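Subject: design request, 677 residues
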């Protein structure tokens, strides 16, 4: 029977987390992800001729399952992994974690039980990767991302830097334009690739938009993290990606035959912030690759060292994006000189200020610096976005929502100027003496909310200042008659007062045409909701929704086994956004987020079950159980009328996969309404 993806991933994490005991999450991830790797390649390639990887007998996940309960299970697992590594030139990649380490995994029976249970977690029929990525469903990728995000969160500031938040990665991939790639021979490079998540998001963006498999290159200083990146490439069907372990500043690996640094079409990076030991292993003042012609960064701060390396390794038509702390925008000294030279060359296309506390390795706010060499000579300004206020709290971190990502990308790609959010800043203004190439965003974008001015005269003598009512001009443009229905002039200039007595509307002074549309004894809310102009506005919004619903209902009715869930939600959400883009008084991005929230919380589970097992299996009753935290979850495959059930039948397509909830007692069924849209 079909299983909900969200429950599969959460139970996977809960089980793994429970078994790690006192081991640090940053170390435990090496064990869990190696098992995930062995399970994936065994499902995908075992027994296949001419497969991408050779999965030999004695080096498969089934061999691990057979070792469960054996007193030497740790030694057996090491041998299984070693055999798989040897067959695929993966020594030093998948055999880094020692499954026979008593200090980390316990001694005797404790180790046997822990490893047996760990293997058992992945020995789950629902974790079948044989058809992974078939029809656009990336079960492995979603499971991997879920686990990595949790490991990064649990690892803390000092050890969570191996992962760039997926939401930030998506923004970076989109703003550099990998989706407009023309040839599969074009290249993407991540100079500090960590576990490879940012590199893979860039690859996926290009492939989903163009169908092209761009060539991937990554370099990572930490040995274990570089091994993780190589595994990640294979897990995501990018086995030809070149990942190299070394310091990219002192020992850059990718070079041309003549010894010059190799150049790339696209570069993305999330380097360690304010890296203090960046000069270790080389002398930047005499750099053999000429990376520091614009100036040598401070000895104890390597932010600009990474930025200059990117500029050197971009092709003349190359595009890049790098996450750096806000300090690079305004710090003085040597960094001010470097910044001035870069801006004068026109290499910076844009700057996107992000919310604080997004990244796993630090809580400080960062910015994305978007680089573009191709159009540098003609550049007249830098497009700036202050997106610092668009996020949601998620545990102990902040996270960009789907609407935040979409708004940033739309605004940047269209170069739309939005008050208190985005602006094209002329280079003449940046180079002006008062700014002197300082790029600090608040100098150019005032994102602060307007001050709530207090009118002392109004407080003392009564009345509502006209400027406060005028501030609602966007509403009066749509429903001007409502203003006349609510307010009348006060006894002195510049002030108005409500046409109300004790909270009720008074009819005195109201024009007859307006009076005919409302009742004489209504509250403010009732006046607004009952006004003809508001009714017309409401009807116009309802018509837009009906138009969207009519256009998309056929797509939902034809969901079938083998369908493409991600393509479906992209089509639905993009059409919703386009439908309401110019609707007055409504924020189309807010509506978009409502749909995306519903997809994440409910609808995607239903759709994935349908495309995996068909409507018949997905509609079978499911047992509702409550865990220790009083959270409800469902269990498939029960046959008892005495238990509380939730039917997965879904007739309410108008609500887009709202679910019919049923309660059963004995042989009597009573239905409750579908979940809210």
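Subject: RE: design request

Done. Sequence follows.
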């Amino acid at each position: 029977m079909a299983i909900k993806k969200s429950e599969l991933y959460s139970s996977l994490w809960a089980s793994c987390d429970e078994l790690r005991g006192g081991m640090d999450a940053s170390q435990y991830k090496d064990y869990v992800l190696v098992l995930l790797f062995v399970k994936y390649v065994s499902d995908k390639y075992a027994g296949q001729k001419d497969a991408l990887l050779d999965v030999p007998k004695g080096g498969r996940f089934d061999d691990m399952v057979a070792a469960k309960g054996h007193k030497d299970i740790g030694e057996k697992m090491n041998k299984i992994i070693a055999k798989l590594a040897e067959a695929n030139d993966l020594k030093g990649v998948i055999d880094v974690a020692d499954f026979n380490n008593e200090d980390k995994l316990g001694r005797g029976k404790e180790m046997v039980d822990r490893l047996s249970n760990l293997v058992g977690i992945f020995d789950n029929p629902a974790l079948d990767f044989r058809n992974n990525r078939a029809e656009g469903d990336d079960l492995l990728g979603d499971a991997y991302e879920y686990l990595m995000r949790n490991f990064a969160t649990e690892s803390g500031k000092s050890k969570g830097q191996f992962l760039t938040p997926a939401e930030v990665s998506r923004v970076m991939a989109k703003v550099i334009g990998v989706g407009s790639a023309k040839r599969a021979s074009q290249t993407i490079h991540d100079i500090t690739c960590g576990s490879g998540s940012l590199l893979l998001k860039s690859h996926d963006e290009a492939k989903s938009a163009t169908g092209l498999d761009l060539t991937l290159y990554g370099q990572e200083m930490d040995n274990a993290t570089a091994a993780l990146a190589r595994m990640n490439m294979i897990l995501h069907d990018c086995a030809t990606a070149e990942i190299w372990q070394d310091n990219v500043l002192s020992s850059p690996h990718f070079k041309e035959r003549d010894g010059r640094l190799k150049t790339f079409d696209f570069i993305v990076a999330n380097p360690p912030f304010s890296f203090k030991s960046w000069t270790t292993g080389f002398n930047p003042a005499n750099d053999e690759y000429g990376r520091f012609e614009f100036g040598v960064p401070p000895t104890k701060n390597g932010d600009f060292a990474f930025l200059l390396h990117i500029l050197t390794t971009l092709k003349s038509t190359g595009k890049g994006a790098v996450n750096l702390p806000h300090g690079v925008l305004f710090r003085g000294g040597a960094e001010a000189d470097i910044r001035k030279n870069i801006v004068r060359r026109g290499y910076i296309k844009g700057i996107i200020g992000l919310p604080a506390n997004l990244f796993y390795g630090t809580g400080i706010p960062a910015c994305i610096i978007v680089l573009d060499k191709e159009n540098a000579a003609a550049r007249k300004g830098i497009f700036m976005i202050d997106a610092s206020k668009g996020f949601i709290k998620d545990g102990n971190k902040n996270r960009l929502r789907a609407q935040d990502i979409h708004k940033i990308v739309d605004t940047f790609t269209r170069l739309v100027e939005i008050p208190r959010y985005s602006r094209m800043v002329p280079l003449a203004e940046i180079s002006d003496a008062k700014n002197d190439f300082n790029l600090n965003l608040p100098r150019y974008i005032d994102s602060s909310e307007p001050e709530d001015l207090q009118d002392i005269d109004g407080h003392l003598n009564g009345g509502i200042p006209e400027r406060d009512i005028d501030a609602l001009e966007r509403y009066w443009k749509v429903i001007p008659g409502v203003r006349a229905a609510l307010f009348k002039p006060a006894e002195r200039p510049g002030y108005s007062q409500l046409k109300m007595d004790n909270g009720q509307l008074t009819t005195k002074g109201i024009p007859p045409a307006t009076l005919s549309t409302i009742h004489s004894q209504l509250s403010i809310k009732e006046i607004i909701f009952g006004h003809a102009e508001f009714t017309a506005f409401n009807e116009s919004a309802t018509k837009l929704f009906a138009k969207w619903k009519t256009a998309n209902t056929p797509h939902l009715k034809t969901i079938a086994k083998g369908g493409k869930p991600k393509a479906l939600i992209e089509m639905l959400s993009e059409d919703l956004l386009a439908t309401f883009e110019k609707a007055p008084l409504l924020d189309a991005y807010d509506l978009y987020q409502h749909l995306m929230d519903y997809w994440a919380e409910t609808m995607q589970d239903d759709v994935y079950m349908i495309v995996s097992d068909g409507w018949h299996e997905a509609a079978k009753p499911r047992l509702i159980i409550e865990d220790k935290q009083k959270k409800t979850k469902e269990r498939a495959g029960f046959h008892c009328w005495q238990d509380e059930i939730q039917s997965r039948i879904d007739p309410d397509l108008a609500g887009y996969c709202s679910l019919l909830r049923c309660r059963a007692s004995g042989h009597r069924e009573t239905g409750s309404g579908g979940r809210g849209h």
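Residues 625 and 633 are 6 Å apart (CA to CA).
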